[in-house]
Automatic annotation (TrEMBL):
Keywords, in A-Z order: Flavoprotein, FMN, NADP, Oxidoreductase, RNA-binding, tRNA processing, tRNA-binding
PROSITE patterns: UPF0034 (PS01136)
An annotated Gene Ontology molecular function: tRNA dihydrouridine synthase activity
PANTHER family: FMN-LINKED OXIDOREDUCTASES SUPERFAMILY PROTEIN
Keyword NADP: yes
Cofactors: FMN
This protein's name: tRNA-dihydrouridine synthase A
Length: 308
């Protein structure tokens, strides 16, 4: 998610991405139709596959910038942005929203928002199945405290079969996703994938029915990401790049596995600092595999002793 102000007025390149990330969407934070349309056009020029409007973030900073979840109370503003953006781009313009905010949390309020924005031309909505409290809860609390209401999102899809409705919030496994796909068109998994990215290793087979793709091992993930780091260093197009910029997003790779704590600790303790280690991932992998080997040797010795 990037604000329109950062893109238009910022000094950095906020639209860069790696070609291997396709299909990739840019989520825009903003509410000024002219600015949103300009940024959407820039996103299309840079090769993004989709541009999404943020109508879900509940932070005070976002609210003060007149975008995010507060726009649930201003569907006409969102509709104007959709129209302006679609006039400038051919890629899909989508909306990510909540099921409500504050005391505007009845289904009729939610349905009214969807109807107005859909009439403007948006046919794809990603819905976080929690309302947001704009007063009294932090953004972190807004991700957990308001109760999930999956049936409300299911009801929306049932009443609007012509729209593409994806659900988000509290989904922790591919089995959970399969259950949701009985009622909606898509599932967005955020925090769980970030904390435990390896749950997506079997997504091709389990969700998309493509058994031709073999799951990649955690070790191969590390090797491929090491290659990516080396390419980033060799390009020298970002003087501020450090291996930690990649590694910090991989802390959960060994979640639930032997050596998982060692992996996290090694990256955290050795990834930061003024002298970055270009072989950070490989050294962390060696530490994990050494620990795993010790465990295997211990178990083998224990089994041998029991047999004897």
């Amino acid at each position: 998610m990037v604000t329109t102000g950062a893109i238009i007025y910022g000094k950095g390149d906020y639209l860069g991405f790696n070609e291997q990330e396709h299909p990739v969407a840019l989520q825009l934070g903003g509410s000024n139709p002219e600015h949103m349309a300009k940024c959407a056009a820039l996103a299309q020029e840079r090769g993004y596959d989709e541009v999404n409007i943020n109508v879900g973030c509940p932070s005070d900073r976002v609210k003060n910038g007149s975008f995010g979840a507060c726009l649930m109370a201003q569907p006409e503003v969102v509709a104007d942005n959709v129209k302006a953006m679609q006039a400038e781009v051919d890629i899909p313009v989508t909306v990510k929203c909540r099921i409500g905010i504050d005391d505007m949390d009845e289904y009729k309020d939610f349905a009214r928002f969807i109807d107005i924005v859909a009439t403007a031309g948006c046919d794809t909505f990603i819905v976080h199945a929690r309302k947001a409290w704009l007063q009294g809860l932090s953004p972190k609390e807004n991700r957990d405290i308001p109760p999930l209401n999956y049936p409300r999102v299911h009801m929306l899809k049932e009443s609007h079969p012509e729209l593409s409705i994806s659900i988000n919030g509290g989904i922790k496994s591919l089995a959970d996703a399969q259950e949701q796909l009985k009622y909606v068109d898509g599932v967005m998994i955020g925090r769980e994938v970030y904390a435990n990215p390896y749950i997506l290793s079997t997504v091709d087979a389990e969700i998309f029915g493509d058994n031709s793709v073999q799951p990649i091992s955690r070790r191969d993930v590390v090797l491929k990401m090491q290659q990516y780091i080396e390419k980033c260093i060799a390009r020298q197009d970002d003087p501020y790049f450090k291996p930690w910029h990649v590694a910090r997003h991989m802390l959960g790779l060994y979640q639930g596995q032997a050596g998982g704590r060692i992996w996290r600790r090694y990256l955290s303790q050795n990834g930061t600092g003024k002298s970055p280690d270009p072989h950070l991932l490989m050294n962390a992998l060696e530490a994990v595999e050494s620990a795993q080997q010790e465990i295997n040797d211990y178990n083998a010795q224990k089994a041998a002793n029991n047999i004897s």
